[in-house]
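Holo prediction. Input below; ligand is S-adenosylmethionine.
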Amino acid sequence: MTLSEMRDILTSRNLQLTKSLGQNFLHDGNQLRRIVEAADLHPGQRVLEIGPGLGPLTELLLEKGVQVVAVEKDARLVEVLEERFYGRDKLILLHADALEELEDVSKDWSAWKLVSNLPYSVASPILVELALSPGCPMVMVVTLQLEVAQRIMSKAGDDAYGILSLLLQLRYQAASSFKIPASCFFPAPDVDSACVVLVRRDQVLLRPGPPTKIFAQVVKQGFSQRRKMMLKLLRERWPDLPWGEFFAELAINPMARAEEVSLEKFVELTKKVSS
Ligand code: SAM
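Structure of the complex:
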């Protein structure tokens, strides 16, 4: 789908794009093909696409012979997509808010791949919701603001390391990433983007359910005031737990701020709290 085709659809229907829905459409064919290649798709696989927009990515996904479920919030775009993909039996289009759709914990995405150019305003909550769900997708190939992509991939000690890094890395490893310049989108956003390939870990670091919930609570509390010592913050919230002992047993510096504490240490700390 070229830029002029996108413009034609929008003009002929008098469609004004909605900024709050993150409607920046990817029109660069090379970048779209790179995203699809990064997902390593094979006929018969199942793909979840959040925010198909005018369908440039959807089209390439369907060419791979995969089954696609595409969730779009904007009714005007759903109408365009229904016409554009009429009769394509490998596509299920859902008119819904993806965040509400994903909150249904009974859904099992474990045999699915997520391939999406995500709406920027809700990209992080969507990824966290999926990553922490019991049936999280096997692979997530997502295009995001560059700064968010950096936060996802950061390690302890990096400036961008924080809650998002830890909540996603509990279940996923970043396998690769590439930058996508703002000029590849219409309209061009103010910032560059990146496509990140997240592969689900073979080894489960913490079981879904209570241990994962405790992990998320400890991480959020630890980062609630970035400049403050993590030990103090945890004591404030859970004064009855022997945090000093936990830190000593795990060789975590009692003066450390959360941004210095690795994923592995957060996991070990969670195990102590859970036991
Ligand atoms: N995939 C298309 C592309 O690459 O050109 C469009 C991507 S655009 C960045 C994000 C899309 O997500 C828009 O079509 C927008 O309407 C849709 N969207 C925004 N919020 C959404 C939500 N909560 N649930 C589902 N779709 C949403």
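The chain has two domains: 3-200, 210-274. That is the main takeaway for now.
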